[in-house]
Write a structure and sequence with these properties.
The chain is α+β, with helices and mostly antiparallel strands and 144 residues long. It has a domain of 95 residues: Thiol Ester Dehydrase, Chain A, CATH 3.10.129.10. It contains three helices and five strands, in the order E-H-H-H-E-E-E-E. Strands 1-3-4-5-2 form a five-stranded antiparallel beta sheet, covered by helices on one side. The protein is elongated and about 60 Å long. It starts with 19 loop residues before the first strand and ends with a strand.
């Protein structure tokens, strides 16, 4: 376990992780993720297509910023502890947007002796709008 990851005894309901900011997002970020994901929808790279579809610019792929948000939480709690994630896309991300990843522990609990931290997270844009809302469950193992 990395030194910056918490142990069970150091956790508390409502405890916030240290937020992280990324950006501004650029077209290269979007196109590189698009190539890696295999999602070649022109709405993510073709300016005329995106604007004809009603967007101000090519639309960022939702899993790009959702993945960055879940990565932020995994780095905080420990990637080996991730048991479940769930995301909800709320608003589009476009070139020029700056994203902030943050969240807090919603609930600490035990199930059959196994300790869990339920984390609620958000990815917000520089405007304050929520781009992604997410939840993750982390296991801290069996109670001694």
């Amino acid at each position: 376990m990395a030194a910056h990851q918490p142990d069970w005894a150091s956790l508390a309901d409502g405890q916030a992780g240290t937020s992280r900011t990324y950006g501004p997002v650029n077209r290269t970020d979007i196109v590189r993720y698009q190539g890696a994901s295999g999602d070649f929808n022109p709405i993510h790279h073709d300016e005329p297509f995106a604007t004809a579809s009603g967007y101000p610019a090519p639309l960022g792929i939702g899993m790009f910023h959702a993945g960055m948000l879940c990565n932020w939480a995994a780095e905080w709690m420990g990637p080996e502890r991730v048991r479940k994630t769930r995301v909800r896309w709320k608003e589009g991300v476009f070139p020029g947007d700056t994203l902030t990843f943050s969240g807090s522990i919603a609930k600490l609990h035990e199930v059959e002796g196994e300790r869990f931290a339920e984390v609620e997270m958000v990815c917000t844009k520089q405007t304050g709008a929520v781009a992604v809302q997410a939840w993750a469950t982390f296991s801290f193992g069996k109670a001694p």
